[in-house]
């Protein structure tokens, strides 16, 4: 069959059946107009990429081997029984673990999310006691960032991330249709407690006693309910630290020894492992 055969055949049919060809052409135009108005413009159409869940666990100051043995393997074993899982990819690094679960396209992700959450809750008692932050996120092609913005600031600003949060991140999160705003390259200030070894030894205070005193003083606790005029008021005790001065004033012993007596408490920048700059100025990426 030569290409010219089809060309000549189409021309002959058009000459013999002009009305039918015109109707076919009009039908194609009408269908195209309808599709243009109703078909959404998507970077990755729904169903094109498989849905998946990500589980991220933070465990600071632990090696990758400890993360794998104490966190990644128990969690991976627990979530592997979730129905509809097609693939599991786990990554263990110093300070954190990440488990990616790819599901089949016909899986209800709301149900899968609850099933994964239940399995993680069952295995939580087997994880290290100081593992508190376990994040579960539903992911798909729709969660790919649609815009990236570079943010720069002057180095004289004491807390640039607070300014970015107050004037950029939170206002953008309130925009209709915006699901989430994330930042790359941010470095939030941290509370640093520099213990004076000589003073702490003279007072007979070790790190275990100091950490226990701080943990006991910093809490948020439900405290029951109060009936008032036919209304039920829920009570909550809040004793979380707001300033370094509050931490320094925490009493360690009944004789009046406070944290500030054996340590210097201040806000400072954490150790940087990456630096982002644009045109010579500190920068971060918002997406």
Summarize the structure in words.
This protein is an alpha+beta fold. It has nine helices and twelve strands. The chain has a four-stranded antiparallel sheet with strand order 2-3-1-4, with helices on one face. Strands 5, 6, 11 and 12 form a four-stranded antiparallel sheet that branches.
Largest sheet: 4 strands, antiparallel
SSE pattern: HHEHEEHEEHEEHHEEHHEEE
Provide the gyration radius in Å: 30 Å
Q: Kindly state the mean pLDDT as a whole number?
A: 78
Shape: elongated
> Numbering strands along the chain, what is their spatial order in the largest sheet?
2-3-1-4
Class based on secondary structure composition and strand pairing: alpha+beta
Helix content: 25-40%
Tell me the quaternary state: single chain
What is the strand content?
25-35%
Strand tally: 12
C-alpha end-to-end distance: 54 Å
| Model regions low in confidence, pLDDT < 50 over at least 5 residues | none
* Tally of DSSP helical segments: 9
Keywords:
287 residues, alpha+beta, 4-stranded antiparallel beta sheet, 12 strands, 26% strand, elongated
Fold topology:
Blueprint: H1 3-16, H2 18-38, E1 52-58, H3 64-79, E2 85-93, E3 96-103, H4 109-123, E4 134-139, E5 149-152, H5 160-173, E6 183-184, E7 190-195, H6 197-203, H7 207-217, E8 219-228, E9 231-239, H8 244-248, H9 259-262, E10 263-268, E11 277-278, E12 281-286
Helix pairs in contact: 1-2, 3-4
């Amino acid at each position: 069959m030569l290409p010219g055969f089809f060309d000549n055949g189409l021309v002959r049919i058009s000459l013999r059946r002009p009305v039918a060809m015109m109707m076919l052409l009009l039908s194609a135009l009408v269908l195209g107009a309808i599709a243009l108005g109703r078909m959404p413009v998507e970077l990755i159409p729904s169903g094109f990429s498989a849905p998946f869940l990500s589980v991220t666990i933070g465990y600071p100051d632990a090696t990758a081997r400890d993360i794998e043995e104490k966190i990644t393997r128990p969690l991976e074993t627990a979530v592997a029984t979730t129905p509809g899982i097609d693939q599991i990819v786990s990554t263990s690094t110093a300070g954190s673990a990440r488990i990616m679960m790819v599901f089949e396209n016909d899986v209800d992700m709301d149900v899968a999310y609850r099933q994964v959450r239940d399995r993680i809750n069952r295995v939580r008692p087997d994880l290290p006691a100081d593992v508190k932050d376990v994040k579960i996120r539903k992911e798909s092609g729709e969660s790919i960032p649609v815009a990236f913005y570079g943010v720069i600031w002057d180095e004289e600003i004491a807390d640039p991330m607070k300014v970015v949060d107050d004037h950029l991140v939170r206002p953008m999160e309130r925009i209709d249709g915006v699901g989430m705003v994330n930042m790359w390259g941010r470095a939030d200030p941290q509370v640093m407690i520099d213990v004076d070894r000589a003073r702490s030894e003279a007072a007979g205070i070790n790190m275990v006693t100091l950490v226990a005193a701080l943990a006991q003083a910093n809490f948020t606790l439900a405290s029951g309910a109060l009936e008032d005029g036919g209304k039920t008021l829920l009570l909550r005790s809040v004793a979380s630290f707001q300033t370094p001065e509050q931490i320094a004033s925490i009493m360690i012993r009944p004789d009046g020894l406070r944290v500030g007596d054996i340590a210097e408490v201040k806000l400072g920048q954490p150790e940087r492992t990456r630096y982002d700059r644009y045109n010579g100025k500190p920068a971060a990426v918002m997406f």
